[in-house]
C-alpha cells in the first residue's frame, strides 16, 4: 500500500497556479475543483516539468503552492507530540527537510500528468466551518479513478490545505507512523538527521 500511495499521489497537488484571491474565498469544493483543473492544465503544458526538471518543480512549489498550504501544521501533525518539545531551530530544520523529502519523493509523478481530469464528489460538510474535508477523484483514460481527498482549514477567509488522502491513506498519518519510530529511537535530532540523510541520498541519485 505504501509504494502504491507514493506512486499515485497526484503531483499537481504540489504545483498549484493561484490567480487572484477569489479561489481562496470560494466554497471549499469549488476551491479544490478550480485548483486541480488549473494545475492539471499547467503541468500538461510545462515541458520542463514533464522532463523532470527538479529546479522548475521546486520553483513552482515555492512560488505558487506554499502560500496556500499550512505547511507548518502539516509538519507538526506528522511529527506528532514531539513537535511541542522541539526548539524553534529544530522546527525550522524539520520543515525544511520534510519539504525537500516530499518534493524529491513525488517529483517523478509530475512527469506523468497527461490525460487526467478532476471529478468532484458531493460536498457533505458546511462551508462555514473552520475545517472541512473535500472529496474528489482523479479520472484517467487508463485505470481506475484515484481517490483524492483534502483536509482544509479556513484562515483569514482563505482555504489552506494541511493534509491529503490518496486511496484511503492520509499523508500525515503515513509520515507520523514513520517519524514516531525515528523519534523513539533517536529523538528529534535523530529524525532531522534521518530526513537529511534521505534527502542527500535522493540528491546523489539525480
Task: Write up this protein.
The chain has 206 residues and is α+β, with helices and mostly antiparallel strands. It has one domain (2-205): Roll (Nuclear Transport Factor 2, Chain: A), CATH 3.10.450.710. It is built from 8 helices and 5 strands; from the N terminus they run αααααααβββββα. The chain has a 5-stranded antiparallel beta sheet. Strand 3 (146-155) and strand 4 form a beta hairpin. The longest helix has 35 residues, at 171-205. The relative contact order is 0.17.
SSE topology:
Layout: H1 2-8, H2 22-25, H3 28-45, H4 47-50, H5 54-65, H6 71-79, H7 88-110, E1 117-120, E2 131-139, E3 146-155, E4 158-166, E5 169-170, H8 171-205
Antiparallel strand pairs: 1-2, 2-3, 3-4, 4-5
Which whole number gives the mean pLDDT? 84
Using the coordinates above, name the CATH class. Alpha Beta
Helix content: 40-55%
Radius of gyration of CA atoms, rounded to a whole number: 17 Å
Which structural class best describes the helix and strand composition? alpha+beta
Rough shape? globular
Strand order of the largest sheet: 1-2-3-4-5
- Write out the CATH superfamily name: Tgt2/MlaC
Strand content: 15-25%
What's the total helix number? 8
Q: Give the termini distance in whole angstroms.
A: 26 Å
Q: Spans with pLDDT under 50 lasting ≥5 residues?
A: 14-24
Q: Main β-sheet: number of strands, strand sense, barrel status?
A: 5 strands, antiparallel
How many structural units, i.e. domains? 1
CATH topology-level fold name: Nuclear Transport Factor 2, Chain: A
Amino acid at each position: 500500500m505504501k509504494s502504491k500511495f507514493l506512486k499515485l499521489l497526484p503531483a499537481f497537488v504540489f504545483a498549484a497556479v493561484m490567480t487572484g484571491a477569489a479561489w481562496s474565498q470560494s466554497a471549499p469544493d469549488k476551491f479544490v475543483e478550480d485548483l486541480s483543473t488549473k494545475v492539471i492544465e499547467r503541468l500538461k503544458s510545462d515541458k520542463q516539468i514533464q522532463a523532470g526538471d527538479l529546479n522548475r518543480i521546486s520553483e513552482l512549489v515555492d512560488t505558487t503552492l506554499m502560500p496556500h498550504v499550512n505547511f507548518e501544521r502539516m509538519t507538526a501533525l506528522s511529527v506528532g507530540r514531539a513537535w511541542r518539545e522541539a526548539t524553534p531551530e529544530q522546527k525550522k530544520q524539520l520543515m525544511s527537510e520534510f519539504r525537500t523529502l516530499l518534493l524529491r519523493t513525488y517529483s517523478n509523478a509530475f512527469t506523468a500528468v497527461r490525460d487526467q481530469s478532476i471529478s468532484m464528489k458531493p460536498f457533505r460538510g458546511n462551508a462555514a466551518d473552520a475545517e472541512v474535508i473535500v472529496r474528489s477523484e482523479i479520472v484517467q483514460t487508463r485505470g481506475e479513478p484515484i481517490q483524492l481527498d483534502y483536509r482544509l482549514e479556513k484562515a483569514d477567509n482563505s482555504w489552506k490545505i494541511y493534509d491529503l488522502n490518496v486511496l484511503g491513506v492520509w499523508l500525515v498519518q503515513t509520515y507520523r507512523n514513520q517519524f514516531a519510530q525515528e523519534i523513539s529511537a533517536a529523538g528529534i535530532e535523530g529524525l532531522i538527521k534521518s530526513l537529511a540523510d534521505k534527502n542527500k541520498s535522493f540528491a546523489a541519485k539525480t
